[in-house]
Amino acid sequence: xxxxxxxxxxxxxxxxxxxxxxxxxxxxxxxxxxxxxxxxxxxxxxxxxxxxxxxxxxxxxxxxxxxxxxxxxxxxxxxxxxxxxxxxxxxxxxxxxxxxxxxxxxxxxxxxxxxxxx
Amino acid sequence: xxxxxxxxxxxxxxxxxxxxxxxxxxxxxxxxxxxxxxxxxxxxxxxxxxxxxxxxxxxxxxxxxxxxxxxxxxxxxxxxxxxxxxxxxxxxxxxxxxxxxxxxxxxxxxxx
Lengths: 118, 112
Description:
The complex is a heterodimer of chains A (118) and B (112). Chain A is an all-beta fold. Chain A has no helices and eleven strands. In chain A, a hairpin with a 6-residue loop joins strand 4 and strand 5 (44-50). Chain A is globular. Chain B has 112 residues and is an all-beta fold. Chain B has strands spanning 4-5, 10-14, 19-25, 32-38, 45-51, 56-59, 62-67, 72-77, 86-93, 101-102, 106-111. The A-B interface holds A 4, 6, 31, 33, 35, 40-45, 48, 50, 55-56, 91, 93, 95, 97-98, 103-112, 114 and B 4, 6, 31-32, 34, 36, 41-46, 49, 89, 91, 93, 96-105.
């Protein structure tokens, strides 16, 4: 399977615990995005990587959230001291972009990680 | 600040008929528009896109229309099939990073 892969698919954690999610993008894609989706809403942008550089972070991404993409391959999203309001579906997407004539291309999403904070 | 709006939360259509989903946007800097389909407990699946230099793009049963002056786009699905029952999201991006702004989605139900 050469699509975007996210692990785990589901995570239940107690309030105050730390959690980490992993995303493996499509191998040749240089761009990687994290989004968060809550019930009845569309995905909301969290952060963006161009290769290994984190180029933008949303105001939604509080200090408890950190994301990395070492070596420009897989990415991790860590949430420290989880709160019940963090319960959501966390989506990772990747795309190929920034090349002449194809500045933006379609982003492909993984199946998401469903986080439940109890 | 909701820059992409899908004002119809749901749409019911008979199998074989046309489904028309609408989307409005407010940011004139958006230059690339996409439609995604989402089943429960899965990530969004890319359907079709359109660049702002075009006003129509077609792919099989799916056609997207863009009206830049009205800041409006629509997705036509014809003929509608039961497997099309899902939530459809409109998304838009502008600038060089491809960050997407999504609408809230439209739940489509295709009835026999």
